[in-house]
Amino acid sequence: MNLKDKIDPTNLPKHLAIIMDGNGRWAKQKGFLRTLGHESGTKSVKSNIETCVKLGIEFLTLYAFSSENWNRPKLEVETLMKILIKSLKKELKTLQNNNIKLNAIGNLEKLPKSAQKELLDVIDKTKDNNRMTLTLALSYGSRDEIVNAVKNISDKVKNNIISIDSIDDSIINEHLYTQNLPEVDLLIRTSGEHRISNFLLWQIAYAELYLLIYYGQTLKNKIYMRLSLVIKKENVDLEKQVNKLNNFLVLHKSIKIALTLLIFGSFSQIKAQERIPFDQGKNIS
Description:
- The chain has a six-stranded parallel beta sheet, with helices on both faces.
- The N and C termini lie far apart (about 75 Å).
- The chain is an alpha/beta fold and about 280 residues long.
- It is built from eight helices and six strands, in the order βααβαβαβααββαα.
């Protein structure tokens, strides 16, 4: 029995959140522009969405654009917004065919008007779909979300709409962007970073965390996506096998780099040796 066959579909997370990190760094590592990394990342997103639908994940939340991302270079931000608009137009059919409802959280008013229009249009057209809810966190920051919730609750207390004594977890949940979503069961982050980056801080209180050492493009591999999901099972034997696969992929990548350097070094030495007679002759004359 292989790893894929060990996945228990009845024990998958109800709500999965993913921080698709490292697209720009992946592109830089490959010698490409950062913007090409973001373009490539959209393919991973589509693959992940389709995989989650087939597995039966009910809620999928993707950290698409953080409130801090507005501080990136203007050209990169503009490119990301264009990619967002393009993806919404292009993938509407995919959402409809898979019965996926689109949702969005964050300070959406900061998005360009064209992006807001396209986003709201797709949300409206998919509002009756019920197989899976796909939530895009756009211009999102968890601290801002919590601050806004506190302000709204305080205002209601001030106006005697609710009492201080009635404030509990449920009241706070009702004032968050995610008020219509269940708590996160599993959070996956790519790129090897070990931080939450201001994402769903309240909602992941009891979530399991799985930190991948690879960039977002790795999750295009549907089998690897499935392996990532089974960590929620708390199956130690299976987790060891997943980590073993992780280590194998790292080793494989390291060997490729080492061989490339070795071949390049040998080639450089040969070229240097070929030039020696010519250089010596030139010095003699």
